[in-house]
Structure to design on (406 residues):
């Protein structure tokens, strides 16, 4: 295999498979505290608001990690970044399991979230470097690792949490991350050949020139769009369980709807990846954003059990492909050597949007006494996102139709 032929090669797909496995293991830091929240709350005698503080700090660490670790990947490579992040995440889990005190536990979740971030945007950026014609589906698959992690780990840890509580579960997670992520990262040491970088950059540079946007301007616009779309996305994802409780269906039903969203999101990411390879990342992002808006509108009249299941499934199928589309666009228009930092920065804004939107929806609920206005708020933010994406599309329309062949 020549340096020129390495893109979209058999090695690229094998590297993607390994990266997906590492993503499923490493992304557990984003979901673990949600799984153990009731057990943790009972041990420390907390109310529900205080018991969610570790999750808040986990997401803060996750957001910061996506931005900072992405820059480290550009400078030091994915292997060193993954190993360092795995050590931090494992320490967060193991020390949390061993040390007493809720304050210490809470602070350690910053390490958990920061370490988990390496297996999201930085790993997405690395995978995107090894593909050209099939970049969309590759990004969609590796981005699905985050949702698959959220779907699989609850099943794997259910017995441990039920029998022994959250501390044994955290110990298992710390050991699993060290045992899987560090050895796996060593198999990703192969650097991308210079000729492959040049080939990819020739195409992205031509697209960028045709679009008329500078790299910083495009990154800023994608970041604003990311915040807007994820403020909207967070309304159902963060509050669906509470919404179902308010309607009298109970938390178990809400949990089932959240699972449907995540599983639908996996399918959406794969389909969106295939679509991005055909029509480009910008158009794919626009389609996903419009569909998410329609799904949010469909929630407004829905209060029956069957209708909520249906709408939640539709919402998952609509929103899952949105975040990976940002990574595809960055790779389509911006240099390969900046992939880690640019993808990490844009993905970080989407996480900020999720955190902001989750809080904002709760605040609106506290003021109004229902989620109706919170859904309207989400729709308004999503329309802002659609407007930004349309602006990008109008400026990059000609560039988006450019072939990817050298």
């Amino acid at each position: 295999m020549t340096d020129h032929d390495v893109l979209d090669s058999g090695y690229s797909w094998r590297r993607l498979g390994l990266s997906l496995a590492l993503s499923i293991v490493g992304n557990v830091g984003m979901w673990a505290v949600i799984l153990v929240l009731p057990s943790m709350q009972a041990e420390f005698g907390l109310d529900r608001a205080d018991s969610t503080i570790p999750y808040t700090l986990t997401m803060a660490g996750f957001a910061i990690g996506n931005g900072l670790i992405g820059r480290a990947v550009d400078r030091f490579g994915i292997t060193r970044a993954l190993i360092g992040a795995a050590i931090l995440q494992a320490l967060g889990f193991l020390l949390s399991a061993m040390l007493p005190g809720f304050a210490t536990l809470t602070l350690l979740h910053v390490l958990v979230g920061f370490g988990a971030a390496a297996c999201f945007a930085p790993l997405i950026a690395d995978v995107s470097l090894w593909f050209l014609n099939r970049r969309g589906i590759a990004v969609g698959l590796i981005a699905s690792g985050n949702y698959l992690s959220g779907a699989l780990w609850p099943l794997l840890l259910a017995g441990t949490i039920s029998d022994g509580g959250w501390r044994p579960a955290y110990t298992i997670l710390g050991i699993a991350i060290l045992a899987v992520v560090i050895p796996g990262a060593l198999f990703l040491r192969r650097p991308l050949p210079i000729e492959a970088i040049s080939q990819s950059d020739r195409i992205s540079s031509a697209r960028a020139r045709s679009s008329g946007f500078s790299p910083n301007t495009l990154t800023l616009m994608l970041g604003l769009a990311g915040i807007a779309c994820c403020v909207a996305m967070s309304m159902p994802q963060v509050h669906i369980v509470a919404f179902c409780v308010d309607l009298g269906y109970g938390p178990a039903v809400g949990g089932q709807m959240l699972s449907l969203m995540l599983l639908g999101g996996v399918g959406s990411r794969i389909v969106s990846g295939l679509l991005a390879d055909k029509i480009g990342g910008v158009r794919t992002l626009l389609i996903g954003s419009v569909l998410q808006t329609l799904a949010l509108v469909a929630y407004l009249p829905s209060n029956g059990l069957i209708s909520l299941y249906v709408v939640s499934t539709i919402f998952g199928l609509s929103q899952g492909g949105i975040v990976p589309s940002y990574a595809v666009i960055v790779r389509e228009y911006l240099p390969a050597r900046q992939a880690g930092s640019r993808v990490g920065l844009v993905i970080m804004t989407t996480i900020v949007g999720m955190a902001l939107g989750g809080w904002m929806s709760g605040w609106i609920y506290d003021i109004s006494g229902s989620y109706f206005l919170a859904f309207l708020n989400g729709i308004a933010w999503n329309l802002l996102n659609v407007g930004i994406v349309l602006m990008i599309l109008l400026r990059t329309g000609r560039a988006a139709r450019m072939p990817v062949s050298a």
Notes: The radius of gyration is 21 Å. The chain has a mean pLDDT of 86.
